[in-house]
Amino acid sequence: MTDVLHIKNGRVFDPANTPPEADGVRRDVYAVDGKIVGKLPEGARPTRTLDATACVVMPGGVDVHCHIASSTVNRARAMQGEEHASHIHPRKLEHNLRSGSGMLTPSTFVTGYRYAALGYTTALEAAVSPSGARQTHLELDDTPNLDAGFLLLCANHQHVIERLDKGDQEGAVAFISHMLRKTGALGVKVVNPGGVASWRRDATHHTLQTLDDQVASSSVTPRKLLQLMARVCESLNLPHPPHVHCNRLGLPGNVATTLETIKALEGRRMHLTHIQFHAYGQNNKGDFTSGTAQLCDTLNAQHHVSCDVGQVVFGDAFTLTGDTPLEHLLWKLTGRRYANVESELEAGCGVMPITYTDKSFLHSLQWSVGMELMLGCHDPWRVLLSTDHPNGGSFLAYPTIIAQLMNKTLRDEQLAKAHTRVQKHSALKDHTREFTLRDVAIVTRAGPARVLGLRHKGHLGPGADADITIYHDNPSDPLAMFSTPRYVIKAGQVLVDDGELRHAVKGQRLAATITPDEKGEALFTEYFRGGSYDVSQFGLHEHELKSCVSVKG
Fold first, then answer.
1. Is the distance from CB of 393 to CB of 312 less than 8 angstroms?
2. Does residue 546 sit within a domain?
3. N or C: which end of the chain has fewer CB within 10 A?
4. pTM of the model
């Protein structure tokens, strides 16, 4: 039986297919059996019609960078027992009555429900160790309403560094190719390239200072690792370029490292993640300053570079990262409970709760820097919304961030509550730009889908997945508008109906299309003989890989 959905008379925002002057024009949208069509087939009649006369219609949201399913996320869940107790005993906390399974690291099914309730239908888990990939697939299978993929941590893998140290780039590429295919990953994640492996060998050194510092006792450098990862993405024709968490995250003056990282790839495509944490200048006293002026100028000129912002939100958050030296430093600075784990000499894992307060100079600066980046970069297609959930705050804060981007008065009110030094020196007060609904549709939908190489996501053209969000048309109150969609449709199925989440569907796993590599398989099998479990237990079996949606570059 053909399932036909008709959305009539809504103001449609579809930046991937329409010029600015055509966005917001009223028109009808049709979906047949979970796919968008330009017009109904002859003789077809709608199974359901939704009247969107007083509404805005957008594609379903796409979260370009979050942490929702991995062994690291599970460690964070275990550390937050007090939040997860609310699943059984709802209790009044500071600002709201909340139940479910925690706010920052909720369970798999609650994660899927909450994303759907915000109008999001696709998400990218941004950091998974090779040995943790199978578990991540199982968790994502248990997360309803979301099509999801993940990025594989490769840049601190011991064997990759050994191959590169021997000058065997071909072997390193083959080895990574096999891992990507066997784990069903969507792409490559680069975290503090070489810095984690170096700290693994000598924890007295917090961080590599330049891209040309040697990793441990090898000839490998962060620059060589970055260039290797770019080569991997190009040679395998991956849908997404290297997803780079730069060296020296969170340190004063690290904007210089970020700019050098962009230069290191020599014009190749790259995506810089949670870039707010990598955008700090330094004054002559060694204190933090904003580095957004330099960074915005570079991003505006370098069209091969995309990024997501990693916006900080005041309140509770949870640092969750593969950057183990950074997590150790945070623990030393705060003394809060934390865990740091090394995974099979593949990657690091660090978790620690944190609270951002507007009374703190650094936290206020971080909030301001994120806003400055979003407003100061000219091309919204390449500067995308994220909170690096849960590192900068929960994805549940997206409506608040969108509201501040759309309304200068709202962000000025927040700036007035910030630390006085930030109020005085922040360039944010001079930004008069206010995001339009088209801008919002780009940074939350069309842009992330394009950057991730998901051609069937983020737009409402024929052949796209029928993932659609319908909001009350109320741009004068964007917080209310984006907090509670009127309808959310996933693959043609109505999940949120008249503002209430009433239905759930199973999502799909998104994996890059990668041809089997016999050399890589042989290298991996030989290496794995020294592992702590059998190679037959690694990754997915062939029939499981076939169940993933294959995404081509």
1. yes
2. no
3. N
4. 0.96
